[in-house]
């Protein structure tokens, strides 16, 4: 059962802190496309478009081990994967207008539930397709589309939270926007002249792509249940419209 506005007001700090973390990890991660592209190419997505003569030998991220890894890479493969990124990033930006209309009518709760579900489903699809990328490479288009749509749903709904903080609303708004903008470079790590994300470091350390995606899907599940338990059905009115303490 959804909490009342009064209950949501009492939980506003929990909602704000978790929203910042959720934005960092799940909102605009597509903007960190460079690391995800490397992982998708290593997994063999659309590698069937490449010939053996186009094979590229690349050093693993942990070069101290002296290991090298070989995978097929070519222009056609990169064009297909970048097309998926273009579609996903388009949805990450272009759906703000309909989301605003829907949120005015239904409030942020159902949109956030749908967004977290879409993000989790995108991670599940990427994890599942990685088991047989030769046959399931096409799923990456749908996965990246759901990822972009789900991410903007989380960001857009979190922008309503500052309404509950009165004089601190600008501070909370800056945290929401900042966490969204920073999600592409979450947990940056400098290695020589390269900047790697936290998830790329885990991948280079030997954790499989599938495990990373399943874990990310689990995180999306936490976002879903956090919203289900703590976000009210009604939209958050401004302090001028209602005094939560007197409801």
Observed structural traits:
single chain, mainly alpha, Growth Hormone, Chain: A, two-stranded antiparallel sheet, two-stranded antiparallel ribbon, 11 helices, elongated
CATH class: Mainly Alpha
Tally of discrete structural domains: 1
Determine Rg (CA atoms, Å): 20 Å
Task: Name the strands of the widest sheet in spatial order.
Answer: 1-2
Helical content class: 55-70%
Secondary-structure element string = HHHEEHHHHHHEEHH
How many runs of DSSP E, i.e. beta strands?
4
Strand content: 5-15%
Taking the sheet with the most strands, its summary is:
2 strands, antiparallel
CATH superfamily: MFS general substrate transporter like domains
SS element count, helices? 11
- Unreliable parts: 59-66, 187-195
CATH topology: Growth Hormone, Chain: A
Q: Write down the overall mean pLDDT.
A: 81
CATH architecture: Up-down Bundle
Distance between the ends: 19 Å
Per the principal axes of the C-alpha atoms, what is the gross shape? elongated
């Amino acid at each position: 059962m959804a909490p009342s506005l009064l209950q949501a007001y009492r939980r506003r700090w929990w909602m704000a802190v978790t929203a910042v973390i959720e934005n960092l990890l799940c909102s605009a991660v597509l903007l960190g496309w460079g690391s995800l592209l490397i992982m998708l190419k290593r997994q063999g997505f659309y590698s069937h478009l490449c010939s053996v003569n186009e094979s590229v030998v690349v050093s693993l991220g942990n070069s101290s081990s002296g290991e090298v890894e070989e995978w097929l890479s070519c222009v056609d493969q990169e064009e297909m994967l970048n097309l998926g990124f273009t579609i996903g990033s388009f949805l990450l930006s272009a759906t703000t207008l309909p989301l605003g209309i829907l949120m005015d009518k239904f409030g942020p709760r159902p949109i956030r539930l749908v967004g977290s579900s879409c993000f989790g489903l995108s991670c599940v699809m990427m994890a599942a397709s990685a088991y047989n990328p030769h046959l399931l490479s096409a799923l990456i288009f749908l996965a990246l589309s759901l990822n972009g749509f789900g991410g903007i749903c989380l960001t857009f709904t979190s922008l309503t939270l500052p309404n509950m903080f009165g004089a601190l609303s600008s501070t909370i708004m800056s945290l929401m926007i900042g966490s969204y903008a920073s999600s592409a470079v979450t947990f940056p790590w400098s290695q020589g002249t390269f900047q790697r994300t936290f998830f790329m470091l885990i991948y280079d350390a030997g954790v499989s792509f599938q495990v990373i995606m399943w874990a990310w899907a689990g995180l999306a599940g936490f976002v879903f249940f956090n919203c289900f338990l703590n976000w009210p059905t009604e939209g958050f009115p401004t302090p001028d419209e209602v005094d939560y303490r007197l409801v």
